[in-house]
Amino acid sequence: MKTITVIGSGLIGRSWSMVFTSGGFRVKIYDNQPEQAAKAITEIRKQMEELEEAHMLRGELTAVQQLSLISSYDDLAQALEGAFFVQECVFENLEVKQSVFQDTERLVGEDVILSSSTSCLVPSDVFSKVQNRRRCLVSHPVNPPYYVKLVELVPHPETTAAVMNATYALMTKVGQAPIRLKKEIDGFALNRVQAAITAESWRLVQDGIVSVKDIDLVMSEGLGMRYAFIGPMETMHLNAPEGLGDYMNRYGRSITRMLNSFGPVPDFLSQTSKNIINEMCELIPSDQQHLSGRRERRDQLLLGLAKLKKDH
């Protein structure tokens, strides 16, 4: 049975652990804070039992069987022993991640793959202090990865094709939907697309074109309905009688005209931005009770969507 080490026992670390055990892998969770990894297993047990009751537990093993594959460690060397793959999930701080991988490299063999969950730090920075960078890459999940299956695989400039292929195969085996970036870029693919949507949504509210509530409806009741199943390229391909080329012949000039009318990148810290934030907080107050309730609602909706996509 192959072993994967997850470094960091927060939300992403716990989710990765659940994903890997659903594929039948043994998972060793490490956290440098005493007892935190053990507490993470308690939280994982609760989630798995709820998922099993809702018939949404991933994989062929029962919750009890999957839980038996997870163990917790406060000692990094013990956590890394026997692992063929390491998934780092510490908080988004470059120096901390660099230190983690320096320590990890000293304790594992040359063939062990080192993977980071970073959402915005490029691999050439994250792994700059690693000696053997050929086995390093970013595997960027979408939060929460148990329900949203996309994983962006981003290579370091020195990453070998074999490491990319092995990680792609692993992610596919555990039920994720991996994509390969051909080279590193700030923000990767998902966050760059998300930033473009964020910027134009912000501008439309800022310029008095539409309200916060209504711009969210543009996505949740409009674009998002399609994008939950097909992407922007296929959407265009299907929206013209003869496909994507026909679509661009019909609408390409209009798209160019609209893009040229876009304003500059918004100042997200301006007084106008504070007005937008206040408008959002009127809809959903920013206290923990309201935010926790909406996050729970989000996860339940994602759970239902995941089930729908699985069944179709």
UniProtKB/TrEMBL annotation:
One Pfam assignment: 3HCDH
Keywords in alphabetical order: Oxidoreductase
Domain 3-hydroxyacyl-CoA dehydrogenase C-terminal: residue ranges: 187-253
TM ranges: none
Residue ranges of domain 3-hydroxyacyl-CoA dehydrogenase NAD binding in the record: 3-183
GO molecular function: L-gulonate 3-dehydrogenase activity; NAD+ binding
GO BP of this protein: fatty acid metabolic process
Entry annotated with the keyword Nucleus: no
Keyword Cell membrane: no
Domain of life: Eukaryota
InterPro entries in the record: 3-OHacyl-CoA_DH_CS, 3-OHacyl-CoA_DH_NAD-bd, 3HC_DH_C, 6-PGluconate_DH-like_C_sf, 6PGD_dom2, NAD(P)-bd_dom_sf
Family, similarity comment: Belongs to the 3-hydroxyacyl-CoA dehydrogenase family.
Protein name: Lambda-crystallin homolog
Species, as recorded: Betta splendens
